[in-house]
Write a structure and sequence with these properties.
455 residues; alpha+beta; Rossmann fold; Tumour Suppressor Smad4; 2 domains; eleven-stranded antiparallel sheet; 12 helices; kinase; transferase
Length: 455
Amino acid sequence: MTHRREGHNRGLIVYVDEQLRHSKRFDAAGIQEKHPNLFEPVRPKESQNKTHKCLNSNEGQLRYWDSEMCTMHPYLFDFVITLGGDGTVLFSSWLFQSNVPPVIPFSLGSLGFLTPFSFENYKPTLEHILSKGTRLHMRMRFRATVYRAMDNIDPATARERRKALQKGDSDYMIRNISKRGWCAVEMHPGADGLETPDLPVQDVHCFKTAPVESFEFLNDLVVDRGPSPYVTMLEVFSDDSHLTTAQADGLCIATPTGSTAYSLSAGGSLVHPSIPAMLITPICAHTLSFRPMLVPDTMELRIAVPFNSRSNAWASFDGRGRIEIRRGDHIKVTASPYPFPTVVPEDHPNPWFDSVSRTLNWNQRKHQMGFVTLNTDSSKKDQDPQDLDIDDVDSGNESDIETDPCPLEDKDGQGNEEFDIDEHTPSMGTQSVSGPPPAPGPLSERHMATLANQE
């Protein structure tokens, strides 16, 4: 803020959280008293929508943002600085539901998987980024659209539907889905309200649905049973085809960035953020064969709550916006057109591998020792092997044992002319290694008769 930019007579305009306006710890009055020039009126950056109060204010270089500003005016910000952990980065993704400015995440949290920059070096880091530029990593985000079942059908179909609901016939409600597709039963808002496709009623025997809200998420969409004690029944569709019926505590639809979050705890695989894929991970599935899977990001996934489900489901998006998914509702998941750009450190071009090892201790264990350990103690190099104390071997000091790789050769490299096996074989005594031989048992009458005949 105090350093002049190239081609400008003022520094940067900084937006801070609206909650800090009257904070005593932030002390905006003290900053104004110390730097009065920062509070001189500055013309704000132009935006397409000029209805927000921030565009008509006479504030200086220190301003305040709120959630409405981030949603309606994302182009006001050239870049975003986060101070915290991974939750702070996810919160910035939640604020910008459309276009997202480049994010510079500084680590102040406990895990720091998405925050590769250290806060201790924030000054040289920002100076380098502002003066020389930087590289960006475009992290994929998903869009989840919630469709609600609409009860606007004729009386004859309503009676047929009520009978199907009483019998728990879910096949009736999803009949001909593979033939016509979900586009035949979805209603899209138009100028005069909701418009229904011009299709015969007998061809589509199901609820008509309409999109009511959508969310952009960076980590995962979790559909679970919520407070219900019953197992959740979810129908999963992939590109208008029925994929499977999930009977579990829930499902986790994760992005590659979210593969190290809830999906990992549920048994999902680690996926590099550059791989375009969707992760489908069951949560405590009541079956032995429902394994996690990866599907292309070009697919259209739908998670529906069937009408014969014992209870409703609940959905959360990056742990926020928790809503109830009732019977007949479904959620469509597609790749978002608005990625999440993050700044990549210059000294770590691949920070994901470093984060996996640093934060998750991936594939780290004590190294296995070899069969032969070389002795590094110079005081025992000249020790005769015959003078070796057996107690040293029993106590586990294998590092004090030296082995001669060529026992049949002299120290000068020449072999012995004669070699007697008796001279090199230690005396084992009258007993074998495995113990004394067993005592002979008594002879039977048959053996005694055989010996008498031989005599």
